[in-house]
Each structure stands twice: as structure tokens, then as C-alpha cells.
Design brief:
Elements (H helix, E strand, L loop, with lengths): L3 E5 L9 H8 L8 E4 L8 H17 L4 E3 L5 H4 L2 H5 L6 E4 L4 H8 L3 H11 L3 E5 L1 H4 L4 E3 L11 E3 L7 E4 L5 H4 L3 H8 L5 E5 L3 E5 L3 E6 L2 E6 L2 E6 L3 E3 L3 E4 L2 E4 L14 H4 L7 E8 L3 E8 L4 E5 L5 E7 L2 E5 L2 E5 L4 E4 L5 E5 L3 E8 L4
Parallel strand pairs: 1-5, 2-3, 2-4, 4-5, 8-9
Antiparallel strand pairs: 1-10, 6-7, 9-12, 10-11, 11-14, 12-13, 15-16, 17-18, 18-25, 19-24, 20-23, 20-25, 21-22, 21-24
């Protein structure tokens, strides 16, 4: 899985978070639209849901960014294919706060979540604040449960299956005394525990992150705690699962050479699925390997940086600037920055995407 992420401890749609928005919008693909999704607040009633929706739309209007409400209140809405289709060419989805467990249960396995995963594959962005962050790990807390019982923890979306994500980290013990200690005792020692303070965010590509905001990001690995503050950079070697298959991402410093073998074994072709693996990611280039079953597609989108595509197996059709090109093994395409394009797999296929990260 590719994609760009902004994980906020609190403070969605507040002035400080414009920096987070700008960081992602400078990197994502798509048509420029931001979809505001207040699903996590739905259990609190229509007034709260509508309040977050209007606040989000107004926030992006201040920056001149096109934003739309994605009206998803429950799992039925999330499985509505007409709603899911609105994500296909979007640049950014933004999940605001509420109940993390409710949000995870509403999304997991739905048409909307599958479309978001496919969007991340093409370089879309995901911003999650509070519940929108906490739902992404192995487990998600149910904020309607008042005690530290086993019922507090529900199945998360497992986008980062080795991590437990804690927003409001500097305020948790004020909300619920003893909650930080409970989390530290609950999270297995070989899992990552990541806490993000209020009005603080970590932005990155899923493994390489930078801290933005007034507070810190706190990471526990085994028994070791490390705090990072703005503008610190950190590497968290997370992994992700797409359609049940674990894919491990590889990072590279600009000064380090890297050889990656047997990529076809690490990224097998899966029926009715598109999977990807970021194999190189640094400040100069991002190299992503894609595997697509026949009929799978990456819908029309653009990237703010130049890109090179090379087909290494099978056949695909690429439409750029309104012209369709049928490509096969060995064919190479150069796409100028912001060139709109779409990809359809004509047969099971693999291709390599190279994004040039430095400004042209």
C-alpha cells in the first residue's frame, strides 16, 4: 500500500492544522478534492455530525481547497457503492473525531474502505484526527465503555496491524485517570504503541514520518520510550495488509544504494485485487511496485510530481491526456507533473511506478 497520512492527536479543522493539510496536498494524487467524513461522531446525533461537517468544509474553504461532505453515518452508508465511487478520484479523505471503535466497525470490509485502500495505492491521502487516527491500528477503543474492561478494545481497521494508536496522549489521564497505564499494560510488548499529543500530528508515507504541531509523538518499542517533537523526523517500520495479505515497506536513505530481490514473491497477484509495495522512499524518489488482477483499475487522477511507469508483467491500458495506450512488458511511460491519467489491467499484470519527489 502506498498513500500519504496525517495522524492528529486532536484539533481537526483548527488553524494550526493547515500545515498538515498543505503537507499532504503537496504530495497526493487525485483531482484536488478533499472529502470530509464525520462518521465517528454519528452516535452523538445529527446535530454533532452536521456540526463537524460544516466546520470541516469551512476550514478548507479558508484555504481555497475544494471540500465535500461524504455523508456516511453507519455501515449501510459505507457499503453504498455510489458513496464509495466518490472517493475514486479524490485527493484526500479526512476522518474527524468521535468513537474509534464505532468508526472501525462502520468501515471494515465495506465498499468505502476498499475504495480508500485502492485510493491509497494510487497515492491518495488520509487524514485522521482522534478517532480517525485511533481506528487504524490493531485495536480501537470504544469510547462509550467507561471502565477498563476487555470490552474497551474492539477490532481496529488494522491498516497498521502492528500498532496501537493513542490520540490525546498528553491529556488521556485527565480524561480517564489510569488510562495511559492501562494501555501500556494492554499492548503486547512486541507491538508498537504510538501516542500523539493534542494539537500535534505525525505526517508521512506510512513508515517515514515528521512531527508537526505544539506537542510530541511518543513511541514505545518493547520497553523503550522515545519522544519526538516538531520538526523531528522518525521511522516506524510498520506493515500493512491489503485483502488479508501482509506487505512490508522498505525505506532507503538518499545516500544508500539498495537491491531488492524476489519482489514478485513478496507481492503476488491476488484475485480481484490491486496490491502495492513501496520499495524505496526518500526525499529524491519513491518507487512503488503494483500487482493488479485483470479488470482492476486505478481511476483517473494526477500526481504533483513527474512519474515513470514500466510494465514488468502482463498487459495494461494507460489513458493520459485523453489518449489510450495499450502497454506490455518492457514498455515505459513518462508522465509530466499533474498529468491526469488512469490505469486498467487488461491481464494480470505488474508495473513499477517511480515518483520523482524533488520539485521539477
Amino acid at each position: 500500500m502506498s498513500g500519504w497520512f496525517g495522524l492528529l492527536g486532536s484539533g481537526e479543522f483548527q488553524p494550526w492544522s493547515h500545515e498538515v493539510d498543505a503537507w499532504l496536498l503537496d504530495r497526493v494524487t487525485g483531482d484536488g478534492r478533499v472529502l470530509v467524513v464525520p462518521t465517528a461522531s454519528a452516535p452523538e446525533g445529527d446535530e454533532v455530525f452536521s456540526g463537524w461537517a460544516q466546520t470541516g468544509l469551512a476550514h478548507f474553504a479558508e484555504s481555497g481547497v475544494t471540500a465535500e461532505l461524504l455523508e456516511v453515518r453507519d455501515r449501510t452508508d459505507a457499503d453504498d457503492r455510489l458513496i464509495a465511487e466518490r472517493v475514486e478520484s479524490a485527493s484526500l479523505v479526512y476522518f474527524s473525531g468521535g468513537n474509534p471503535a464505532y468508526l472501525a466497525a462502520s468501515l471494515k470490509g465495506t465498499a468505502l474502505w476498499r475504495t480508500i485502500i485502492n485510493g491509497l495505492d494510487r497515492g491518495m491521502g488520509y487524514i485522521g484526527c482522534s478517532a480517525g487516527m485511533a481506528c487504524l491500528g490493531r485495536k480501537a477503543p470504544d469510547s462509550s465503555v467507561e471502565s477498563f474492561s476487555p470490552d474497551l478494545w474492539r477490532q481496529g481497521l488494522e491498516l497498521f496491524p502492528r500498532a496501537w494508536l493513542g490520540p490525546h496522549w498528553d491529556m488521556l489521564d485527565r480524561f480517564a485517570p489510569g488510562l495511559v497505564d492501562h494501555m501500556m499494560r494492554t499492548v503486547p510488548a512486541d507491538d508498537l504503541l504510538v501516542g500523539v499529543d493534542e494539537q500535534t500530528a505525525m505526517v508521512g508515507d506510512g513508515d517515514r514520518w515528521q512531527v508537526v504541531g505544539r506537542g510530541g509523538v511518543h513511541v514505545r518499542t518493547v520497553d523503550d520510550w522515545t519522544r519526538y517533537g516538531s520538526p523531528d523526523e522518525l521511522t516506524l517500520l510498520l506493515s500493512t495488509e491489503v485483502d488479508g495479505q501482509e506487505v512490508t515497506m522498505t525505506k532507503s536513505a538518499m545516500t544508500d544504494s539498495l537491491v531488492i530481490g524476489n519482489l514478485h514473491l513478496d507481492l503476488p497477484l491476488s484475485p480481484d485485487a490491486t496490491t502495492s509495495r513501496t520499495v524505496v522512499s526518500n526525499d529524491v524518489a519513491r518507487v512503488v511496485a503494483f500487482a493488479m488482477d485483470a479488470g482492476q483499475e486505478l481511476t483517473d487522477h494526477s500526481a504533483p510530481r513527474p512519474a515513470v511507469i514500466q510494465v514488468v508483467e502482463g498487459d495494461l491500458a494507460l489513458t493520459a491526456a485523453g489518449v489510450r495506450h495499450e502497454l506490455t512488458v518492457g514498455d515505459v511511460v513518462y508522465l509530466a507533473a499533474s498529468e491526469r491519467h488512469a490505469v486498467v489491467a487488461l491481464t494480470p499484470c505488474r508495473f513499477i511506478l517511480v515518483l520523482v519527489m524533488t520539485a521539477p
